[in-house]
Amino acid sequence: MNKANKTDIKVNKKYCSFCDNTGIITNPYYLELGDEPLSPCPKCVLVNCSCNGNSPYYCYTNNSINECSCREIRLKIERINSIYSRSGIDKKYRWKFINNFESTNKKVEEAKSIAYDIITKFPDVKKGLFLWGNPGSGKTMLSAIILTELITRHAINGSLIKISRNFFNRLRSSFVEGSPNYGEATNIEREYAEIDILVVDDFGVQRDSPWEQETLYNLIDARYEAEKFTVFTSNNDPYKTLKEKADGRILSRLKEMCRIIEISGDDYREKL
Asked: What is the pTM of this model?
């Protein structure tokens, strides 16, 4: 279904199970060690490295200058870091992966299992996700983890946005003379419609004026038509709060493009 950039998606057999056949490992203690969060796998990449990690990752072999065997992975890591720096993921959720997410009850466990399936099967997934439940139940963290995993595995563009702050406020500012976004409404809408992976956090906090409802529907519809993978989080039950919005078109489209999953429980933010 999802028409994301499929570069680096197929399992590369030259890498090993230690790095999940990606050539990249993650360091959960990178902050404490002052290290980088991602590095080439020591078992299948660094073992053959001759450049010692010196950019642009070439080495002198057989009386000539050649690409080091690590170059592809090191360039991929650079590309991932560049994408991730623009992803909009909050600092407290950055570089969190699926094994960092703790299941506190059956509903949370189900959501985690669905997220794992998406991560491991992407881009061959049929639907996105709509995660809803009480505040602090882990919706934002789980959606940020999905985004982090997909960016890291596939080096494709993705972004996490707050629906009011990032989307509607940027659009409103595009109508204000002197604003950096003045006249950019079409480009802003296209940016969010076309990005490979989009996480829309705090869905439902918008004021729901007729303009907002129509604009929101247009975003959802554009991503649906382009078959782009999307995750929404909300504190509200969409079957109740979206039933009458935009004549029911928003809920109808969300049901077509997303699996709607309740995720409720204790305040997850106390664990961070």
From this structure: 0.88
